[in-house]
Specification:
Blueprint (H helix, E strand, L loop, with lengths): L5 H12 L4 E4 L3 H10 L16 E4 L2 H7 L2 E4 L6 H5 L11 E4 L4 E2 L4 E2 H8 L7 E5 L4 H5 L4 E6 L3 H11 L4 E6 L2 H24 L3 H22 L9 H12 L4 H10 L4 H8 L4 H16 L4 H10 L5 H11 L2
Parallel strand pairs: 1-2, 3-4, 4-7, 8-9
Antiparallel strand pairs: 5-6, 7-8
Helix pairs in contact: 8-9, 8-10, 8-11, 8-13, 8-14, 11-12, 13-14, 14-15
Bound molecules: NADPH dihydro-nicotinamide-adenine-dinucleotide phosphate and 1,3-dihydroxyacetonephosphate.
């Protein structure tokens, strides 16, 4: 498990309680020591008690990777490159890789699975994603949750589903790796924009129209990238959009709401102490769309607010004329 945040903690809980041994890399020495002393991750999901017979925290990435059959990536996308660049190109040979990240590599504007495939010379059949509407905070509370494992390799997807399934987690395999991964990136942008509108005082009526227009925006973009038929009403697509757009736990909605209320990007980021992937994703998707030229009014509005410094009130005022 790579990453010491909320989602890494939640997935470590699920996997270890199901019997897997988890070699868990996190960057902070103090966090590892705290975990070894108390069984709790000090700063994320700190209510979760972990079984140290099966959870082995370390700051030594090479050691953790060498010991594992599966590599689960759960650091925010912005830090994937710096973490993985410590590994040799052959370090992942023979392993199966699952990205639990809902973001793109900033600057390169590529999906995490594409980056890993290229960097470590792996076929996509060695890779998968964990998707679906699932907040780490609800895993900590053992609330009924659903995950989708997307991979072009049906056996890999089913094998990882089997590692996840338990009393409160249902997991289903799916073949659409790219579509699921892109939609998981885009739903963060939508939730962030909904948060901005909420922060400005827009209500549920506007939010519902924003989300339904967002589904069409996601469909247009995903189709332009890869026109394979996909049913966006599935829980890995629409379900994930809904949970992020409406949940009290959503980082992206919370971040957007702060921006709508007048926080600068920097102060919102500092106050949250968690990462809103949508902030980085807006730039990547906007830049990819320069070539594709798909109509994406919601993403454009978010980009103009976050990167062009247009006032949120002005931009959402313009967006409101484009929604139907
Ligand atoms: N939280 C959730 O419910 C879900 C999250 N995801 C995805 O999981 C991924 C991880 O998110 P999540 O667990 O929520 O993250 P959190 O916001 O909970 O934690 C932030 C993580 O980022 C690390 N970090 C912050 N700054 C840096 C840096 N400069 N270099 C390296 N690491 C840094 C933190 O490490 P440190 O503590 O050492 O600062 C911490 O591990 C994201 O892609 C997210 O979209 C997917 C589904 C559900
Ligand atoms: O992707 C997630 C839940 O599926 C986490 O992102 P949010 O916290 O913004 O909802």
């Amino acid at each position: 498990m790579l990453g010491g945040g909320s989602w890494a903690t939640a997935l470590t809980k699920i996997l270890s309680e199901n019997g897997s041994c988890v070699h868990w890399w996190m960057r902070g020495k103090d966090d590892v020591q705290h975990l070894l002393r108390t069984r709790h991750n000090p700063r994320y999901l700190s209510s979760v008690a972990l079984d140290l017979d099966r959870v082995l925290p370390t700051t030594d990435l090479k050691e953790a990777v060498a010991a594992a059959d599966w590599l689960v990536l759960a650091v925010p996308a912005a830090f994937v490159q710096s973490a993985l660049d410590k590994l040799d190109r052959d370090a992942l040979k023979g392993k199966r890789i699952i990205s639990a990240i809902k973001g793109m590599i900033p600057g390169k504007n590529v999906l995490v699975t594409d980056y890993v495939a290229e960097r470590f010379r792996l076929p996509h059949t060695r890779l998968g994603v964990v998707a679906g509407p699932c907040h780490a905070e609800e895993v900590a509370l053992e609330k009924q949750s659903y995950l989708t494992i997307g991979s072009p390799d049906a056996e890999l997807a089913e094998d990882f589903c089997r590692l996840l399934r338990n009393r409160y987690v249902k997991a289903n395999p799916a073949a659409d790796l790219d579509g699921i991964e892109y939609c998981a990136v885009m739903k963060n942008i939508i939730a962030l924009t909904g948060g901005i509108a909420h922060g400005l005082g827009y209500g549920d009526n506007f939010q519902a129209v924003l989300v339904s227009n967002a589904v069409q925006e996601m469909r247009r973009f995903a189709h332009a990238l890869n026109p394979e038929p996909r049913d966006l009403s599935g829980s890995a697509y629409l379900g994930d959009l809904l949970v992020t757009a409406y949940s009290q736990f959503s980082r992206n909605r919370t971040f957007g709401s702060m921006v709508g209320r007048g926080y600068s990007v920097k102060s919102a980021q500092m106050e949250m102490n968690m990462i809103a992937e949508g902030y980085y994703a807006v730039k990547s998707i906007h830049e990819i769309n320069r070539k594709l030229q798909v109509s994406m009014p919601i993403t454009t509005a978010a980009y103009n607010i976050l990167y062009e410094k247009i006032s949120p009130a002005t931009e959402i005022d313009l967006l409101k004329e484009k929604l139907k």
